[in-house]
Amino acid sequence: LKQVASAIRMHKMIHKELPANLAVLRQDEGHIGKPLLPRDPIDAWGRPVVFEKNENGTWHVASYGPDALPNTDDDLIHLPR
């Protein structure tokens, strides 16, 4: 989750806005010569990492844990600093 969050922060620094979705981070950044994420991010249970952004500009990345259900006790959430 930290790697994904770092790529989101880098995208925001470069483009002055949050990415529309995580697929954007897989596109080649011309001036860097490679994408910000080398592959689609998956969690430890083999499911896609979730990127959620709010209208107020806040965001987070998450894994919904082994039960794959949001808003349960096993969720792993990385909030940006």
Quick rundown:
The protein is built from one helix and five strands; from the N terminus they run αβββββ. It has one helix at 2-15; strands spanning 28-29, 34-35, 50-53, 59-63, 76-78.
What does this structure look like?
The protein has 81 residues and is α+β, with helices and mostly antiparallel strands. Helix content is 17%, strand content 20%. It has 1 helix and 5 strands; from the N terminus they run αβββββ. The protein has one helix at 2-15; strands at residues 28-29, 34-35, 50-53, 59-63, 76-78. The relative contact order is 0.21. The mean pLDDT is 92.
What attributes does this structure have?
globular; 81 residues; alpha+beta; 5 strands; 20% strand; 3-stranded antiparallel beta sheet
Biggest sheet descriptor: 3 strands, antiparallel
Helical fraction equals 10-25%
Structural class: alpha+beta
Terminal-residue CA separation: 13 Å
How many extended strands? 5
Mean pLDDT across all amino acids: 92
Strand and helix map with partners:
Layout: H1 2-15, E1 28-29, E2 34-35, E3 50-53, E4 59-63, E5 76-78
Antiparallel strand pairs: 1-2, 3-4, 4-5
